[in-house]
Design a protein that fits this description.
The complex is a heterodimer. By secondary structure, chain A is α+β, with helices and mostly antiparallel strands. Helix content of chain A is 28%, strand content 31%. In chain A, strands 1, 2, 3, 4, 5 and 6 form a six-stranded antiparallel sheet that branches. The radius of gyration of chain A is 18 Å and the shape is elongated. Chain B is mainly β. Chain B has a single domain, classed as Thiol Ester Dehydrase, Chain A, CATH 3.10.129.10. In chain B, strands 1, 2, 3, 4, 5 and 6 form a six-stranded antiparallel sheet that branches. The chains are: A alpha+beta, B mainly beta. Strand 3 of chain A pairs antiparallel with strand 3 of chain B.
């Protein structure tokens, strides 16, 4: 489908269109062993938590778990598919907590809520704070936090 | 445990010194990094060509942290972090990270450290920075 976003990267949602309390739900995504292997290769983080199945059998997790930052990266990707571009655009800050493991085969999705709006770095842009939760197939919140985005205002 | 002497060296909670700056080697950001990262994240947002995804420098800094003259930190869990994006990062930039431990707090399972980390580009500009909270293992009893 041809959309405004596919033409010029903007889906027509501006600072003024985002309202405090608006909620969004993303599609789900199953985290695979391949995701973890690729992320280890890309990041260079080969911690045994993510790469040594035998070692992890005797850990409290019982198996390899996804890198925390892989979960957050997947969260960002899912959010981009479930929210107006403005709500997950230019990131200026984040506060994030890793609350539980993501294991191979878990399916996660993102619940997000517009939590705050304030003036931005200049007259043409505002700052939007979004509360985000990454939830697994059992409804457990595995990661959560707040992200702050610079969002364009509608041209007068 | 037999063979313990051959176990790979790790930096345990007891070994972490507060305030000592640790500087990693650099890594040049390429289109390949951006493509691989986009594939993993599935980020559908259109970005300016040459722009580096916001979280990629932080993800790469966790691997750079393995390439310092210290054994890898015995991280049991990454508990959380606060992060600020201060300047643009683009394909072709070479980044490295500079970190130091701000606080150490002993826990039953291990210890919690709060680390300050900065991502610095080839011009010496800090482009991202923040504080990371990590649960680190204690040195196993001999």
């Amino acid at each position: 489908m041809l959309s405004l976003r596919s033409v010029n990267g903007h889906d027509g949602v501006f600072f003024e269109d985002l309202e405090i309390g608006q909620e969004f739900t993303s599609p789900g995504r199953t985290v695979t062993e391949a995701d973890i292997v690729i992320f280890a290769g890309l990041s260079g983080d080969y911690n045994v938590l993510h790469t040594d199945a035998e070692h992890m059998k005797s850990s409290i997790f019982g198996e390899r778990i996804a890198h925390g930052l892989l979960g957050l990266s997947i969260e960002q990707g899912l959010a981009s598919r479930g929210e107006p571009a403005a709500a997950h655009g230019v990131l200026s800050a984040l506060k994030w907590k890793f609350k539980g493991p993501i294991k191979i085969g878990d399916t996660v999705h993102v619940l997000s809520r517009i939590a705050g709006k304030r003036d931005g770095p200049d007259a043409g842009r505002g700052l939007v704070t979004v509360e985000r939760r990454l939830v697994n197939q059992r409804g457990e919140v595995v990661q959560e936090g707040e992200t702050e985005h610079v969002v364009e205002r509608r041209k007068p | 445990m037999s063979g313990a002497a051959l176990a790979p060296a790790q930096c345990y909670f007891e070994d972490v010194e507060k305030g000592v700056p640790l500087e990693t080697p650099g890594i040049t950001l390429t289109e390949a990094h951006v493509s691989l990262f986009a594939g993993v994240t599935g980020d559908a947002a259109l970005r300016d060509p040459g722009a580096v995804p916001d979280l990629l420098p932080l993800c790469l800094s966790s691997g750079l942290g393995w390439r310092v003259p210290r054994p890898p930190l015995a991280v049991l869990a990454f508990m959380g972090f606060e992060w600020r994006l201060l300047g643009p990062v683009r394909v072709g930039d070479t980044i490295h990270s500079v970190s130091r431990t701000l606080t150490k707090r002993s826990m039953r399972e291990g210890g919690v450290i709060i680390e300050e980390r900065r991502i610095v580009n080839q011009r010496g500009e800090t482009v991202q920075s923040g504080k990371l909270t990590l649960l680190v293992a204690r040195r196993p009893a001999a």
